[in-house]
């Protein structure tokens, strides 16, 4: 499914907007949420995990400050990029219960 396209002011081309889905799931002896295949901490109750997922999704949508970030990709290669504080993903929460 293609993402929405938004203008990229730096090079005037269209860039797909990122979408992140937080999924509330059973994990270990309790509940957690996942995003892009990564688990959050465990929560004792479903309600706590759902609230945490909703908070994380909301925080991801909020604009912040632009800053330089570094990250390692799946192949072990390090990257340095400028992350624009206005470049926020769309988010949603899926509840498995």
Short description:
It is built from one helix and eight strands. The chain has 97 residues and is an alpha+beta fold.
Written overview of the protein:
This protein is an alpha+beta fold. The protein has one domain (5-95). The chain is built from one helix and eight strands; from the N terminus they run E-E-E-E-E-H-E-E-E. The strands form three sheets. It has a four-stranded mixed β-sheet, covered by helices on one side. A two-stranded antiparallel sheet has the order 1-2. A hairpin with a 2-residue loop joins strand 3 and strand 4. It is globular and about 40 Å long. Mean pLDDT is 83; it is low at 1-14.
List keywords for this structure.
97 residues, alpha+beta, four-stranded mixed sheet, two-stranded antiparallel ribbon, 44% strand
Shape: globular
Low-confidence stretches: 1-14
The fraction of residues assigned to DSSP E strands is 35-45%
Q: What is the structural class?
A: alpha+beta
> What's the end-to-end separation, in Å?
25 Å
The total strand number stands at 8
How do the strands and helices of this protein lay out in sequence?
Blueprint (H helix, E strand, L loop, with lengths): L4 E4 L4 E4 L2 E9 L2 E6 L2 E2 L6 H16 L5 E6 L5 E6 L6 E6 L2
Parallel strand pairs: 3-8
Antiparallel strand pairs: 1-2, 3-4, 4-5, 6-7
